[in-house]
Amino acid sequence: MRPWQERPFETRNLFNPAFCGLVLLRGIRAYEVEDSEGMPFSLTLLILPLVLHSETRAVFSASPRTHFIKVVEGHPEMLVGLAHRTRTLLPFTLEGLGF
Asked: I need a labelling partner for 59 at 20 to 30 A (CA). Which of 14, 46, 78, 80 fits?
C-alpha cells in the first residue's frame, strides 16, 4: 500500500481509514445482534466489497432481513467480481480495522 501522501486524491477521499473503519464497525455490530459470539475475522474481509459495491448494496437493501445465501441464490450475478473486489479492498479493510 502506498504512503498516504502518494495516494490519488480520490482514493484518499473514498477509502480513508476512518470511513472504512466505521463501515466495518457497523457491519460487525450488526452481525453481533444475530450472533453474540461475534463475527469471524474471515467474514470481516467481505464487508467492504459487499457494502461499497453499488449493485450489491442495492440487492441487499431490497431484502435486508434475508440471509446471504438466499440473496445469492436469487441474484447469482452478485458473485461476479467479488473475489477481485475483495482482493483489491483487502489493504483498505486491514487499514480500517487497524484504525
From this structure: 14
